[in-house]
TrEMBL record, chain A:
It comes from Methanosarcina acetivorans. PANTHER family: HYDROGENASE EXPRESSION_FORMATION PROTEIN HUPK, HYDROGENASE-2 LARGE CHAIN. Belongs to the [NiFe]/[NiFeSe] hydrogenase large subunit family. Keywords: Iron, Magnesium, Metal-binding, Nickel, Oxidoreductase. Fe cation binds at residues 64, 576. The keyword NADP does not apply. This is Nickel-dependent hydrogenase large subunit. Its main location: other. The keyword Magnesium applies. Gene3D superfamilies: Cytochrome-c3 Hydrogenase, chain B (1.10.645.10).
Automatic annotation (TrEMBL), chain B:
Residues 64-236 form the NADH:ubiquinone oxidoreductase-like 20kDa subunit domain. The keyword Kinase does not apply. The gene is vhtG. [4Fe-4S] cluster 2 binds at residues 270, 273, 293, 299. One of its GO terms (molecular function) is 4 iron, 4 sulfur cluster binding. It comes from Methanosarcina acetivorans (strain ATCC 35395 / DSM 2834 / JCM 12185 / C2A). Keywords: 3Fe-4S, 4Fe-4S, Iron, Iron-sulfur, Metal-binding, Oxidoreductase, Signal. This is F420-nonreducing hydrogenase. Belongs to the [NiFe]/[NiFeSe] hydrogenase small subunit family.
Length: 595, 383
């Protein structure tokens, strides 16, 4: 058995260590996911004005600050007792802000953080021996996705065309957020009662213009089939089967045109989505399309035991059709992307947040029972020698706690949301993989879900901007600090990386007693729990072959590209996972909470 | 470029960056944007090859990656332009690089083309680089630094090694400069013991460099996040020799190590706030969502030494007060404690920058702070 460790897993937010035991066949038999940093800014809201929360908590994460500040605003709406009166236009403004943040965050992940692994020299070694087709595919991969300052065998590799084109788009999207959010990162417009800024007609014009420019990028690089055609035949398809069929037929047409010319360029119709949809998957690419090779990303990052995993969504984006006000508990079907739990065998259930517990059995905290987050308590180790990351699965090895839903580890993020929302394409892919002996969740479906969610939100964003938002409407209801006296609030929302919840309570002076976020990466990157069950990322590493395309060139412990793919497919955010802004209200000086 | 802009550019051409008087500089760079500004030096940038490559090692400590996000938002110049025009080699940056740390049975493997831990050690060994630090540095628990560990070593160790060999150090963002949010007052701040590079809050004796006994020139670019222009223009100025490190630092930096042109001692956000007219007429919003002055909603712009109101953010499209949110003075060494509670008028709060306004007038915090503060208070009292 060989220990293969990736530390740090770069091109993510924060500092993450993935440690694996690998057998002689290059298969992972055990894994630990370790979050390496503890900031400990717990208590910074305790005894403070709760209105500071939306601005302060977004400092947890500079990649999805909008999500944190809006979740805080939702929790404060509830705390101040005004959630049912928030003007519709404030809710739409929040949607627009969050949608733009989703697009920017997903684009960053796909192109800047995740994409560069497709230019890993392992794929050159796998693909180029396959003749002209393989060589052409490798050229596309390195030509599109190579990062800056990249070298292979001492030769500088030019920056990939898609990578390079994505940077200005990400910037453009951040600029769009600034138009209605003041600045980015750390936009400033979330506040209990509504939204601090009332976007005017000129702002709507600017947002529309940004939108059109971003869609130019999408049609040139990301998706070569017309955007509306794609939406109509996938997201709006009448069944999962029809959505999958449309994609397979579209890809079949492309393959027919390109297979003799070996031209897989964008000009030949292979947008980045089409390219990955075909070549990323063994089932789609090799079995259905008859391609000579694929990256086999559907063989990695899955779960072997459906009873030990579920998919969780809190629900995100308000439905403007519901008018003023919203229900902070996010009942099924109320939000644009619904709340819900999807079991490991793909059955939908309604969300019940009382079933959430957290375990510290494998984290660097003094032991407590498994507790609901609102009752949690955590005493961090202060002995430097006790903070070790290399003592194996039975030890404590992370600053991350282990949240569980009804005792089950949950994956959160685009795949969970698309499954909960029964989105036709992603649901269809998941079912197809299940039926053919693959895990429904895998690196390929996780990435396809992220791509599809980006398209769906882009589609809805235009409606929010041009149809639903009324610049003559009201943007806030009045609030007063006294309204937050002896109160509690819950904010349930979706960050790009998954379900995000904030809980707050106050005393008779309207000062914060308890403030706790439970964030997406805490779920995805969690260590083992008190029953010894590994977290989602850990489970998805176990059983995977470490090298490119199922170790097709033999075992090479020194370039474990599949560990990189699996880890990054969750879009990890370690600052979020170990933010520790949680306030238990229990005043022992060294009591910290990590959620 | 309009004729007026061209004239400005010509004026700039004959002047030395960061030695302009503030008014000229603000007017010029604010109006032109940094690309045009750098463009005015194009006679000097005949070819990128004339500059020796400048290597940058960018380290991430305890942070939210907001400053890296911010630098990717740089519009003028954007990061790729900056890299090309100034011949910058962004040799190590955790969020952007191709590599990652790779270990087999605890030994680093492969080469620096794939292994980031080998890469960073090689780069440090070679020397001759500018070190950029984003995020605070854990000193706790008990000076061990083990609250932040990366690649089998504490961030404190990595920082020490990289700082020792650096030509100069740029601390980017309020966490790296002054500790920021990781150093906010709390019962456990002493346990985690996070430090800024050269300061912790206002105290330079508690900076990590002092703790480690390292003496290196440091430029602080605070902000939560730091504005991309502040970062890229400063890097540009150093590379172009417009700031000579360390000789010029005494004259171009303020007492907290910030470039005075971006963080002027005698200028606050308040002075050019887009809502300033309402303030002058005594018209204030008391609920969110309006368009008047935000003073009564707790705005700290009169205490915030930054050019945000001129430069604005994200392609100059907006800024905090323009979007109806009070300035929280995120560039100040005491942030966030010196600005909290955010939505309560400063005069009610009594404490700013660690002292009340009366004490401030005696302390050497900068006359403008006091003047702006007193001015604001008088206005509020109807004097």
């Amino acid at each position: 058995m060989v220990n293969v460790t990736v530390d740090p897993l770069t091109r993510i937010e924060g500092h993450l260590r993935l440690s694996t035991e690998v057998d002689a066949n290059g298969v992972i038999t055990d894994s630990q996911s370790s979050c390496l940093m503890f900031r400990g800014f717990e208590r910074i809201l305790q005894n403070q004005d709760p209105r500071d929360a939306a601005l302060l908590v977004q400092r947890i994460c500079g990649v999805c600050p909008t999500s944190h500040s809006l979740t805080a605003a939702n929790a404060l709406d509830d705390l101040f007792g005004v959630a049912d009166t928030i003007p519709k236009d404030a809710l739409v403004a929040r949607n627009i802000n969050q949608a733009l943040n989703f697009l920017a965050s997903h684009a960053t992940h796909i192109y800047i953080l995740w994409g560069p692994d497709l230019a890993n020299p392992a794929y050159r070694d796998v693909l180029t021996p396959l003749g002209e087709t393989g060589t052409a595919v490798w050229k596309e991969m390195v030509g599109r996705f190579a990062p800056i300052s990249y070298k292979i065998d001492g030769e500088s590799v030019p920056v990939g065309s898609s990578y390079l084109a994505a940077i200005p788009e990400k910037k453009r999207l951040q600029e769009a957020i600034a138009v209605i959010g003041g600045k980015m990162p750390h936009q400033v417009t979330s506040y209990p009662g509504g939204y601090t800024y009332k976007p005017n007609v000129a702002d709507i014009g600017k947002l529309s213009s940004y939108y059109l420019q971003v869609m130019d990028f999408v049609s040139s690089y990301t998706l070569r089939v017309p955007f509306d055609t794609w939406i109509e035949n996938t997201y709006k398809a009448s069944s999962p089967q029809k959505a999958v069929n449309f994609v397979v037929e579209h890809l079949t047409d492309l393959v027919d045109k390109s297979v003799t010319s070996n031209d897989f360029s964008r000009e030949a119709g292979w947008g980045d989505t089409e390219f990955y949809a075909a070549f990323g998957s063994e089932l789609v690419g090799e079995t259905l399309l008859g391609l000579p090779a694929s990256l086999k990303h559907d063989k990695i990052g899955g779960y072997s035991d459906p009873s030990k995993i579920a998919f969780l969504a809190y629900g995100g984006f308000f439905n403007p059709e519901n008018g003023d006000g919203y229900d902070p508990s996010s009942p099924a079907g109320e939000r644009f992307l619904t709340s819900g739990i999807v079991t490991g065998s793909l059955e939908y259930q309604n969300l019940d947040t009382s079933k959430i517990t957290e375990s510290v059995a494998h984290a660097f905290y003094e032991d407590t029972a498994d507790l609901h987050p609102s009752k949690g308590e955590t005493n961090p180790f202060t002995d430097p020698d006790a903070i070790r990351f290399d003592q194996g699965s039975d030890s404590r090895y992370s600053w991350n706690k282990a949240p569980r839903y009804d005792g089950i580890p949950c994956e959160v993020g685009p795949l969970a949301r698309m499954l909960a929302a029964k989105e036709p394409l992603v649901t269809g892919l998941a079912l197809a993989f299940n039926e053919n002996g693959y895990s429904a969740a895998n690196v390929y479906t996780r990435m396809m879900a992220r791509i599809q969610e980006t398209a769906i939100i882009a589609n809805e964003l235009l409606k929010w901007v041009t149809e639903d938002y009324d610049p003559n409407g009201r943007i806030a209801v009045d609030t007063d600090l006294s309204m937050a006296k002896d109160s509690t609030g819950m904010g349930l929302w979706e960050a790009p990386r998954g379900a995000l919840g904030h809980w707050v309570s106050t005393d008779s002076n309207s000062k914060v007693v308890n403030y706790q976020p439970v964030v997406p990466s805490t779920w995805n990157l969690s260590p083992r729990d008190s029953a010894g069950v590994p977290g989602p990322l850990e489970q998805s590493l176990i059983g995977a072959k470490i090298n490119a395309a199922e170790n097709s060139l033999g075992v090479n412990y020194t370039n474990p590209v599949n560990i990189l793919h699996i880890g990054r497919s969750y879009d990890p955010c370690v600052s979020c996972a170990v933010h520790t802004i949680d306030l238990t209200g229990k005043n022992t000086p060294r009591t910290l909470r990590i959620v | 470029m309009s004729t007026g802009m061209k004239n400005l550019a010509r004026t700039l051409d004959s002047l030395d960056f960061l030695k302009l008087d503030r008014r000229t500089f603000m007017k010029a760079v604010g109006a032109l944007g940094a690309t045009a500004f750098l463009g005015t030096y194009k006679t000097e940038i005949v070819s990128a090859l004339e500059f020796a490559e400048t290597k940058i090692i960018w380290l991430h400590g305890a942070e939210c990656t907001g400053c890296s996000e911010s630098i990717l938002n740089g519009g003028n110049p954007d990061i790729i332009q900056a890299i090309n025009k100034l011949n910058v080699n962004l040799a190590y940056h955790e969020t952007l690089l191709a590599q990652q740390g790779l270990f087999v049975d605890d030994e680093p493997v492969n080469t620096s083309e794939l292994n980031s831990e080998l890469l960073v050690d090689e780069l440090i060994e070679e020397g001759n680089y500018i070190l950029v630090v984003e995020g605070a540095i854990a000193n706790g628990p008990d000076g061990s630094g083990r609250y932040c560990v990366i690649g089998n070593r504490t961030f404190k160790e990595l920082f020490e090694k990289a700082a020792k060999n650096a030509n100069a150090i740029l601390a980017v963002g309020t966490c790296a400069t002054y500790g920021g949010i990781t150093c906010a007052d709390s019962a456990i701040a002493d346990v985690t013991d996070y430090r800024g590079v050269a300061f912790t809050k206002e105290d330079s004796s508690k900076g990590m460099l002092t703790e480690l006994g390292i003496h290196k020139p440091v430029i602080n670019i605070p902000g939560c996040p730091a504005h991309p222009d502040w970062i890229l223009l400063t890097v540009g100025a150093v590379i172009l020799g417009k700031i000579k490190v360390p000789d010029d630092l005494d004259t171009v930096l303020d007492q907290y190590g910030r470039p005075i042109v971006f963080f002027p001692t005698d200028h606050t956000v308040h002075e050019n706030c887009p809502r300033r007219g309402y303030y002058d007429r005594g018209e204030f919003d008391e609920q969110i969502g309006g368009e008047k002055c935000l003073w009564k909603l707790g705005c700290k712009a009169p205490y915030s030494h930054a050019d945000c109101a001129i430069r604005r953010w994200n392609g100059s499209v907006s800024m905090c007060t323009q979007a109806g949110s009070p300035c929280i003075a995120c560039v100040e060494p005491g942030f966030p404690d010196s600005s909290r509670p955010f939505y309560v008028e400063a005069e009610d709060k009594g404490v700013l920058l660690g002292a009340n306004i009366d004490t401030l007038s005696k302390a050497a915090v900068g006359a403008a702070t006091v003047v702006a503060g007193v001015h604001a208070v008088r206005r509020m009292k109807g004097e």
